């Protein structure tokens, strides 16, 4: 039993570290996206000024600037989609962490001998179980959202 308990604790710590590393990677990518957004905005502003100011420019130049502007808009839309996916992943990580904590609390109550449990312990166990079900349902909703997004992109 103590070995089993230590193994569960070790796995919980490992899972927590994995979630932490994923959260850091997501945060870094969100920051990169923010920087790229600013750069795209600057480039787009320059192109818009060129398109407005250069009425006498060659039609080829005008078409090239328009195409560049459309490319920037497409790139920005792709980044917005990626940012949206990352925000969903952040929510999923939070719910995963919450589920893990609730699971540990529930295990501590379930490991108690039934004869030693007080009515408060029974109530706390039921409350934790309800919270755990809510978290699982929220995670399910996030998975459905991701699936709907994936299908709409196809």
TrEMBL record:
The keyword Cytoplasm does not apply. InterPro entries: bMERB_dom, F-actin_Monoox_Mical. Residues 13-154 form the BMERB domain. GO terms for molecular function: monooxygenase activity. Pfam families: bMERB_dom. Residues 23-57 form a coiled coil. Its main location: membrane. This is MICA1 monooxygenase. The keyword Coiled coil applies. Keywords: Coiled coil, Membrane, Monooxygenase, Oxidoreductase. It comes from Origma solitaria. It is found in: Membrane.
């Amino acid at each position: 039993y103590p070995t089993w308990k230590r193994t569960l604790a070790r796995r919980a710590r490992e899972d927590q570290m994995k979630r932490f590393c994923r959260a850091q990677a997501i945060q870094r990518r969100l920051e990169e996206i923010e920087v790229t957004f600013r750069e795209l905005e600057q480039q787009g502003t320059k192109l818009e000024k060129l398109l407005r100011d250069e009425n006498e420019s060659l039609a080829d130049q005008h078409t090239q600037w328009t195409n560049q502007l459309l490319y920037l808009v497409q790139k920005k839309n792709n980044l917005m989609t990626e940012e949206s996916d990352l925000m969903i992943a952040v929510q999923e990580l939070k719910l995963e962490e919450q589920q893990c904590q609730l699971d540990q609390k529930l295990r501590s109550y379930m490991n108690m001998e039934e004869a030693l449990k007080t009515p408060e312990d029974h109530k706390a166990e039921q409350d934790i179980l309800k919270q755990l079900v809510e978290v699982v349902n929220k995670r399910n909703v996030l998975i459905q959202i991701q699936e709907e997004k994936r299908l709409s992109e196809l």
